[in-house]
Amino acid sequence: PTADAPTGAPGSPVTRMTETPRFPDFFVVGAPRCGTTAFCRYLARNPQICFSRPKEPHYFTRLHQDPSADELRRDYLDRCFGHCTAEHRALGEGSVSYLYLPDTLERIRRFNPDARFIALVRNPLGMLPSYHLRMRFLLQEDEPDFGKAWALEPTRARGDRVPRHCLDPRLLRYSQVARLGAQVERLFAVAGRDRSHVIVYDDLVADAPGVYRRALEFLAVDHDGQIVVGLLELVEHGQSIHAGHHDVHDGRVERHGTGKVQPFGPAGRQPDLVPLGREQRLEDLPHDFFVVDDE
């Protein structure tokens, strides 16, 4: 990006942060459990796009104040975009927490007022149970019953009954996570409709090539000729889908680098609860908050 950031005091990190070409110019901001993993994988394969490593840094979620230029480069740009080259036309990342934590959108636009945002949405009735299981999988939630976990929200808002290993109690505000309509309206208000692109999960499942093509047009990136198939087609045809730390193929789930394979349920659906493994540390979880499968 080359546009000036909002005026600030001399030396302020928001004055000229967009001078660095390595600051992202698009963000896939959510929502969780809406197919963002597969969608971001399609984008990352395009040779004109540099996608962050990892897919979900959640950098702006964890900030309490704007970082200095040195902090931003050291803790975010160098770590997540160090692999980018001059051949990449667009830089992006996919932290799905940004959509429902409003201060993150404003903070991103202070650094790059020309940033574009992509939001994937789906019926909350299908999203929330999957999201709850994902929180259980990551040890952020200790209540196995979703209905009871939902009812605990007011108690947890007071600081009670927050799971001991929960990294951020905001992750368990199920009613807020589910307010996709309000979140998208807020995105429009912050970024403008011309810099916001909304994708419905059902469209991604039914017409992934069309969804991918329209997203590239929104990002002003050329189509790379990539063959993009629907999420369910991949499993039905026995092809491998990288899903967070797992591969799904031939009706099985395999954890990367272990060779350990376990069966998964009918209709080509990966179970949400797959053991993390002893090598996974809690402090590593922010980089993978919502990444497992795309169902």
Written account of the structure:
The protein is α/β, with parallel strands linked by helices and 295 residues long. It is 33% helix and 13% strand. The strands form 2 sheets. It has a 5-stranded parallel sheet, with helices on both faces. It has a 4-stranded antiparallel sheet with strand order 6-7-8-9, with no helix packed on it. The two termini are 34 Å apart. Residues 1-19 and 235-295 have low confidence and may be disordered.
What does the secondary structure layout of this molecule look like, with pairings?
Layout (H helix, E strand, L loop, with lengths): L25 E5 L5 H10 L3 E3 L17 H13 L8 E4 L8 H10 L4 E6 L2 H14 L8 H6 L1 H5 L16 H4 L2 H12 L4 E5 H6 L1 H12 L11 H6 L4 E3 L2 E4 L2 E4 L5 E3 L32
Parallel strand pairs: 1-3, 1-4, 2-3, 4-5
Antiparallel strand pairs: 6-7, 7-8, 8-9
Helix pairs in contact: 3-8
Kindly report how far apart the N and C termini lie. 34 Å
Determine the strand fraction and express it as a percent band: 5-15%
Work out the helicity level: 25-40%
Low-confidence stretches: 1-19, 235-295
Helix and strand run:
EHEHEHEHHHHHEHHHEEEE
Largest sheet features: 5 strands, parallel
Question: What would the average pLDDT be, to the nearest integer?
Answer: 78
Radius of gyration: 19 Å
Number of strands: 9
Structural class by secondary-structure content: alpha/beta
Structure annotation, total helices: 11
- Oligomerization: single chain
The neighbouring-strand order within the major sheet is 2-3-1-4-5
Q: Give the CA-based shape.
A: globular
